[in-house]
Amino acid sequence: MELEQHQSSEGSFLDTSLDIDPVSDAIGAEIKGIDLALINDQTFAAIHAAWLKYNVLLFRDQTISDSDLVAFSRRFGELDESPPNENGVMSVPGLPEILILSNVIENGVAIGSLGNEECIWHTDMNYNERPPMGSALFALEVPPKGGNTGFLNMYRAFDALPVELHRKIERLTIKHDSTTNSAGFRRVGSEEVGDIRTSPGAIHPIIRTHPETKRKALYLGRRRYAYIPGLSLEDSEVLLDEIWAHTTQEQFYWHHKWRAGDIVVWDNRCTMHRRDDFPQSSRRIMHRTQIKGDQPH
Ligand code: OGA
Ligand code: MN
């Protein structure tokens, strides 16, 4: 618990501290005893500070409405509208800021994106020039088994780079593939990838500095169809495999087992995430917002 006391108008001390409980040694903390529909600016400031420190925050037993989810998310920054996915744009009617992730099919039509597939380690949308700063994911229905989401601490992965690997990647960039999403589906309107050296997607440094904490972090997108400009295809593949093998070590990540009512907010500038698959016979419905970000450097 982090203590932070404030004097009330009667002169007594009010305890407005957050109850913060780290969820693993690698990354993440649960903030307990908070209804996200009811927070004030002061509580949000404490939440924001905890977010920068722990990179992923978990709030359980939330019952907030979609518009409260939008209002809470907007405290972090301006929101993106739902990006198109393999089934087109799948947002909540009237709330373009909320993307539905789901495997549920109603009358033969998918109600959301990503299906029941595994999603490989990735950061969101860094095939764009200005990838999102972060996202909030609200669990409405979750499967009894599977569908857990892992979060990886990219500061830690950077700090633990072997000297030789650090030296090799210091000045390099990655071209991030914009055609395929983390579940392996081709995005609506994308062509099949021919040559990964010339296929579309933004180029960003492999090592970035977080604009708020000023700490350095590895910045990877998806392994699939990534390419390091300036290297031969073969050298790029070998080096990318080496970077991924280093980064995806167990010591850097934590997996969250969802309960309905959970909200998880991650900092997309210093984390990666992945998702386990789950049986198509169970239902998973998640509502998600995405906060706009700046160009990484
Ligand atoms: C995402 C994502 C994983 C999940 O929302 O960007 O990758 O657990 N979601 O649904
Ligand atoms: Mn994602």
Outline the secondary-structure elements.
Blueprint: E1 5-7, E2 13-15, E3 19-22, E4 29-32, H1 41-54, E5 56-59, H2 66-74, E6 91-92, E7 95-102, E8 105-106, E9 109-110, E10 113-114, E11 119-122, E12 134-141, E13 149-153, H3 154-159, H4 163-169, E14 173-175, E15 203-205, E16 207-209, E17 216-218, H5 233-247, E18 253-256, E19 263-267, E20 271-275, E21 285-291
Write up what this structure looks like.
With 297 residues, this protein is an alpha+beta fold. The chain contains five helices and 21 strands. Strands 3, 4, 5, 6, 7, 10, 12, 19 and 21 form a nine-stranded mixed beta sheet that branches. A four-stranded antiparallel beta sheet has the order 11-20-13-18. Strands 1-2 form a two-stranded antiparallel sheet. The chain starts with a strand and ends in a 6-residue tail after the last strand. N-oxalylglycine binds at residues 101, 114, 119, 124, 135, 137, 149, 182, 273, 275, 286, 288.
**H and E order:** EEEEHEHEEEEEEEEHHEEEEHEEEE
| Rg result | 20 Å
Say which CATH homologous superfamily is assigned: Clavaminate synthase-like
How large is the count of helical segments? 5
Major sheet description: 9 strands, mixed
Distance between the termini: 34 Å
> Regarding CATH, which class?
Alpha Beta
Shape: globular
Helix content: 10-25%
Alpha-beta content class = alpha+beta
Task: Describe what is shown at a glance.
The protein is of the alpha+beta class. Helices cover 17% and strands 28% of the residues. Strands 3, 4, 5, 6, 7, 10, 12, 19 and 21 form a 9-stranded mixed beta sheet that branches.
